[in-house]
Design brief:
The structure holds 2 protein chains of 2 kinds.
Chain A (H helix, E strand, L loop, with lengths): L6 H5 L46 E2 L1 E3 L2 E3 L6 E6 L4 E7 L3 H14 L9 H17 L1 H12 L3 H22 L10 E5 L2 E5 L5 H14 L3 E5 L6 H12 L7 E3 L4 H9 L5 E5 L2 H10 L6 E5 L5 E4 L5 H13 L11 E5 L3 H13 L19 H16 L3 E3 L15 E4 L6 H4 L6 E7 L2 H9 L6 E5 L3 H10 L4 E4 L18 E2 L4 H6 L2 E5 L1
Parallel strand pairs in A: 1-5, 7-8, 7-10, 8-9, 10-11, 12-13, 12-17, 13-16, 15-16, 17-18
Antiparallel strand pairs in A: 2-3, 4-5, 6-20, 11-19, 14-15
Chain B lengths: L55 E5 L5 E6 L3 H20 L2 H17 L1 H12 L3 H21 L3 H5 L1 E3 L5 E9 L2 E5 L7 H12 L3 E5 L6 H11 L8 E4 L3 H10 L5 E3 L8 H9 L4 E3 L15 H4 L2 H5 L2 E9 L3
Parallel strand pairs in B: 5-6, 5-8, 6-7, 8-9
Antiparallel strand pairs in B: 1-2, 3-4, 4-10
Classes of the chains: A alpha/beta, B alpha/beta.
C-alpha cells in the first residue's frame, strides 16, 4: 500500500492509486485484510434529489417575524462546498440590524412570549418539532448542500435530533416548577446565540429550544458559511405562527456576532465554536453581568483497551473521527490504544479506512463529504503537514477525490508523540492521531493531558473499568463502547477550556433560567 | 476602603497601642499580665509562612485604631498557594462524599470551641458590638454545618439519570471544578468568607482565598481552625494583602479553574473577567443588583444556596452500554 505523505500529491496521484485492480501481483479475488487497498467494487451513484429544496436567489434577515433586507442592502453569498458553486445571496446584517433584532426580541419578552402560560409555549415548541419532522427531508438536503456533510448524516442524525430537541424541551415549558427543587425558574430575557457551521440546524435547535421553553426570546446568528437551514427554520417559525420577535435570525460575518453578544440589550449569551473565539466573547462581555455559556473546542481521547470488542471499536473509532468529516468539537481525534493490540488494531483500521467513501455529500452512499470551507481545508492541510514534519507516520487510503470542492482524505497518524501539534491542537478535520499506552493509569494521564475536556471514549468489555475510567477522565461526556452519540435528554458540554454550561437535558434548561426563592 | 500600607517597621504608626484596644485582648486575665500577641500569617499548603516578600500592612478597626500587622502577600505567594492547592485537589476530590462532609462538620466543631476568640476578632475588625458579633460568629458556624450536610447529597439533587434512546444507561453526576480562587467579601470578614468558601469545599474543590483586605484577622484565625480540623493541607490556602495586587495574578493564573469575584471592587470586575477569560475560567459573581456593603450574610435564604455549590461543579455525563 502506498502511503501518501503529501495530501496535495495525493490529489494529483494518477488513476493507478484508485484503480480497482490489484497491483501487487496477487489474484484479483484475494482481497484480504491488511493491505489497505480499495475494495474491488464500485458503488453506482445514488444521489438524493435536490428537487425538494426550493432555493431562493436571495434571503433576508428574520426580524420581528418578517423577512427583511439588511439596513444597507448588502449581501454575501453562500456556496456549496462540494462544488464551490454559489447557492444563494444572503443579507449581511449591520449593527443597525443587530439593534433592531434585539429590540424585537425584547418586545417579545413581554406579553407575547414571556407572559404566555407555559402550556401555550409548550404547544408552539411541539408544533416546531412536528414541522421539522414533516419537512425533514427538505432540511436534510439543504443542510448537506450548504455545509458539505453527507446526506446520510443530515438525514439520520442532524435533522431528527434537531426535531427531538424541540420535542424534549417543549415538555419542559409547562413543568419548570418541577425542574429545580425549592426554586422558581425565571427566564433571563433576550438570549444572543452564535452557532458554528458544523451542525447548523442541530446547533440552532440546541440553542433555541431550551431558551424558548424557559420563556426567553432569542437573536441567533448562524455561521456565515451555513446560513440557509437557519433561514429555512425562520419559515418554520412562521408556519408555526410563533409570535413575532420570539425568534430572530441575523446573518453575517463574525464581527456581527460580536456586535450581537456585546450589545447591552442582551441578557444571556450562548456560543458554540472555537476556544479562541470563546475567549474573545468572554472578554468582550466582561463586566456586563450577562449569563454566559460556552461550548468550545476539544481534543478527545478515544481509549481502546486490549479486551475491547475489536470490530465494534473500529466502527467506533471511525465514527468518532470521520463522522461529519471530523468537523466535530467532541471528535475522538486522539486514539489511545493499549500497546498489546496496537498492531492488529491499526491494521484493521487501515482496512476499514480503505472502504470509506469520500465524495458528493448528496450521494446516499457517501461516508465523508466536503470540508465546510476553503479556510478550514487549508487549516487541516497545514496541521497534517505539521504532523508529517514533526515525524509522525501518515496513512491515507487511496480514495478518489472529486475534482472540485473542498475534500480531504481520511487520515491516520501513527507514532504520534504527545508533544506533536496533531496531538495537541484541535484539527477539526478527518485526521486521527494514534498514541499508545500500557496501563489504565497511563491512559488516563495521556487522555487528561490537554487544556480541553469536552469528551472521551472508552472501549473495554469490563463494566467496572468503564466506570473507573469515566470517573478519572476530566471530560464532560464519556462514551463507553460508543462515540459521538447524542440525545436531547443527555447533557453535553465541557470541562476546562472546552467551555462551561451544559446543553441538553435538565442541565441544559438551567443555562436559560434565573433561579429565585419560592 | 484600602488599608494603610506599613511604611515603617516601628509600631505603632498612630497614637494608640494595640494593647489599648480592649477588644483584641484574647481572653480574660489579670490586668497586670502582659498579653502574648499573635502574629497573623498566611496559610499555604498547611503551613503558616509570612509573605516571601517580607512585607506587612497595618490592619485597623473601622474606627481607625490599629489592630495588628498582617502579611502583605506577593504574586509569588499566590503562585505558591495555587501549587499547594493543585497538589491537594485529587486526594480531596477522591474522598467519599460523607467523609468530606464529616471533615467540614469538624470545622464547625472546632470553631465552636474558639467562639469567644472569633467574637472578639469580629467585633474589633468589623466594629460590631459583642452581642452582634456573637450572632455573626454563630451564623458562620451554623453555615459550615449546613454546607457539610450537602456534601453527600449533591449527587442526588444535582445529578440524574437521563432517558436516552438506545441501549445505554446514561447518567449525569456533579464533579468538582478544581482550584477555585475566592476573593472574600470585603465587609463580612468571617461569615461572608465562610459563606463563599464552604460551598466550594463541599463540592470537593480546593481553594486559594484572598481574605478581606481591610478585615483579614478573623480569616487568619479561621485557617488555624482549618489546620487542626482534618481538612487536608493545601485544600484551603489563604492570603492577606492588597486585592489590587493579588486579584489580577489569581485571575490570570492558568492553573486556577474558577474565580469567585464577590469581594472585588466593582470597578475591577471587567478587568478581572477579561483576565479569567484567557483560560476559560468559571466565574461566580455577585448577583445583579447585590451590593457587598448592604448584603445580609446572616439571612439564610439569601446567603446559603445550593446554586453556590453548583457554581463550582462540572456536570459529567456517562454513556454506559447495556448488553449481555
Amino acid at each position: 500500500m502506498t502511503t501518501e505523505t503529501d495530501p496535495k500529491a495525493a490529489d494529483a496521484a494518477p488513476e493507478a492509486s484508485r484503480a480497482l485492480v490489484r497491483t501487487d501481483g496477487q489474484a484479483p479475488n484475494s482481497w484480504g485484510l491488511g493491505d489497505g487497498q480499495a475494495i474491488p467494487w464500485e458503488y453506482a451513484p445514488a444521489p438524493e434529489s435536490r428537487d425538494i429544496v426550493k432555493l431562493k436567489p436571495r434571503y433576508g434577515l428574520f426580524i420581528g417575524g418578517r423577512e427583511v433586507p439588511s439596513s444597507d442592502g448588502s449581501t454575501f453569498s453562500t456556496i456549496d462546498p462540494s462544488t464551490e458553486e454559489p447557492l444563494a445571496e444572503v443579507a449581511r446584517a449591520t449593527e443597525a440590524d443587530v439593534e433592531k433584532a434585539i429590540r424585537s426580541a425584547r418586545r417579545a419578552t413581554g406579553k407575547s412570549w414571556g407572559g404566555l402560560p407555559g402550556r401555550e409555549r409548550a404547544k408552539y415548541l411541539f408544533r416546531i418539532a412536528r414541522i421539522l419532522q414533516e419537512r425533514s427531508r427538505e432540511f436534510a438536503v439543504l443542510e448537506s448542500m450548504d455545509s458539505g456533510k453527507p446526506i446520510k448524516e443530515s438525514r439520520d442524525v442532524d435533522v431528527p435530533l434537531a426535531a427531538a430537541h424541540f420535542w424534549y424541551y417543549a415538555g419542559w415549558a409547562d413543568k419548570l416548577d418541577y425542574a429545580f427543587p425549592g426554586r422558581v425558574a425565571r427566564p433571563l430575557g433576550v438570549a444572543a446565540q452564535v452557532i458554528p457551521w458544523n451542525f447548523p440546524l442541530l446547533m440552532l435547535a440546541w440553542k433555541i429550544a431550551p431558551a424558548l421553553a424557559a420563556g426567553n426570546t432569542v437573536v441567533l446568528k448562524p455561521a456565515s458559511t451555513t446560513p440557509l437551514s437557519a433561514l429555512l427554520f425562520a419559515e418554520v417559525c412562521r408556519q408555526a405562527d410563533l409570535p413575532a420577535g420570539v425568534v430572530n435570525i441575523i446573518t453575517g460575518p463574525g464581527e456581527i456576532g460580536m456586535a450581537l453578544v456585546t450589545h447591552p440589550g442582551v441578557d444571556k449569551v450562548a456560543f458554540t465554536g472555537s476556544t479562541a473565539v470563546g475567549k474573545l466573547i468572554a472578554k468582550g462581555i466582561a463586566g456586563q453581568g450577562k449569563a454566559l455559556t460556552l461550548e468550545l473546542g476539544g481534543k478527545a481521547a478515544n481509549i481502546v483497551f486490549d479486551d475491547a470488542p475489536l470490530d465494534q471499536a473500529i466502527e467506533g473509532i471511525v465514527n468518532g473521527i470521520y463522522f461529519n468529516q471530523g468537523e466535530v468539537c467532541c471528535a475522538g481525534s486522539r486514539l489511545l490504544v493499549q500497546e498489546s493490540i496496537a498492531e492488529p488494531l491499526i491494521d484493521k483500521l487501515k482496512d476499514r479506512l480503505a472502504t470509506i467513501r469520500v465524495g458528493d455529500p448528496l450521494d446516499k452512499n457517501t461516508d465523508v463529504g466536503a470540508i465546510n470551507s476553503k479556510a478550514q481545508l487549508e487549516k487541516i492541510t497545514e496541521l497534517v503537514a505539521a504532523g508529517v514534519a514533526e515525524g509522525a507516520e501518515i496513512y491515507q487510503p487511496a480514495c478518489e477525490l472529486p475534482e472540485r470542492g473542498f475534500f480531504f482524505r481520511p487520515t491516520l497518524f501513527t507514532n504520534v508523540a504527545q508533544s506533536h501539534r496533531i496531538a495537541r491542537e484541535e484539527i477539526f478535520g478527518p485526521v486521527l492521531s494514534t498514541l499508545t499506552f500500557r496501563t489504565p493509569e497511563e491512559a488516563i494521564e495521556k487522555a487528561n493531558n490537554t487544556p480541553y475536556g469536552l469528551s472521551a471514549g472508552v472501549w473495554t468489555d469490563k463494566g467496572s473499568r468503564i466506570l473507573m475510567m469515566a470517573q478519572r477522565l476530566r471530560a464532560g461526556v464519556v462514551w463507553a463502547n460508543t462515540f459521538n452519540r447524542f440525545d436531547p435528554a443527555s447533557p453535553f458540554g465541557g470541562y476546562k477550556e472546552s467551555g462551561y454550561g451544559r446543553e441538553g437535558g435538565l442541565h441544559g434548561l438551567l443555562a436559560y433560567v434565573r433561579l429565585e426563592d419560592r | 476602603m484600602a488599608a494603610r500600607v506599613a511604611c515603617t517597621a516601628y509600631w505603632p504608626t498612630s497614637g494608640s497601642r494595640i494593647a489599648d484596644v480592649p477588644s483584641v485582648r484574647l481572653g480574660p486575665g489579670p490586668a497586670s499580665r502582659i498579653d502574648v500577641r499573635k502574629t497573623y500569617k498566611l496559610y499555604i499548603g498547611g503551613a503558616f509562612p509570612r509573605s516571601e516578600s517580607g512585607r506587612t500592612y497595618v490592619v485597623e478597626t473601622p474606627g481607625g485604631e490599629p489592630l495588628a500587622n498582617a502579611c502583605r502577600a506577593s504574586r509569588k505567594d499566590v503562585r505558591d498557594a495555587v501549587r499547594a492547592a493543585r497538589a491537594a485537589f485529587q486526594p480531596w476530590a477522591a474522598r467519599s462524599a460523607m467523609n468530606r462532609g464529616q471533615i467540614l462538620y469538624r470545622v464547625a466543631e472546632l470553631m465552636e470551641g474558639r467562639r469567644d476568640q472569633f467574637v472578639t476578632e469580629v467585633a474589633a475588625g468589623e466594629g460590631l458590638s459583642t452581642g452582634r458579633a456573637r450572632t455573626v460568629v454563630e451564623a458562620a458556624i451554623d453555615r459550615w454545618v449546613w454546607y457539610a450536610g450537602w456534601a453527600d447529597k449533591l449527587g442526588q439533587v444535582l445529578g440524574n439519570s437521563n432517558p436516552v434512546a438506545g441501549s445505554y444507561f446514561n447518567f449525569t453526576i456533579p464533579e468538582p471544578t478544581g482550584v477555585v480562587g475566592i476573593v472574600a467579601p470585603e465587609r463580612s470578614s468571617l461569615l461572608g468568607l465562610v459563606s463563599r468558601l464552604a460551598p466550594a469545599l463541599a463540592g470537593g474543590n480546593v481553594s486559594v482565598v484572598i481574605a478581606s483586605e481591610t478585615r483579614p484577622l478573623a480569616a487568619v484565625t479561621l485557617t488555624e481552625v482549618l489546620a487542626t480540623s482534618d481538612v487536608p493541607s493545601g485544600v484551603v490556602n489563604l492570603l492577606t494583602g492588597l486585592k489590587d495586587e493579588l486579584v489580577p495574578v489569581l485571575a490570570a493564573h492558568v492553573d486556577v479553574d474558577a474565580v469567585d469575584t464577590w469581594g472585588i471592587d466593582p470597578a475591577a470586575q471587567a478587568e478581572v473577567e477579561r483576565a479569567a477569560a484567557d483560560s476559560v475560567k468559571r466565574l461566580a459573581r455577585r448577583p445583579r443588583g447585590v451590593v457587598d456593603e448592604r448584603f445580609d450574610w446572616a439571612d439564610d435564604r439569601a446567603a446559603q444556596r445550593p446554586e453556590w455549590i453548583a457554581a463550582f461543579l462540572e456536570m459529567k455525563t456517562v454513556w454506559h452500554p447495556i448488553g449481555a
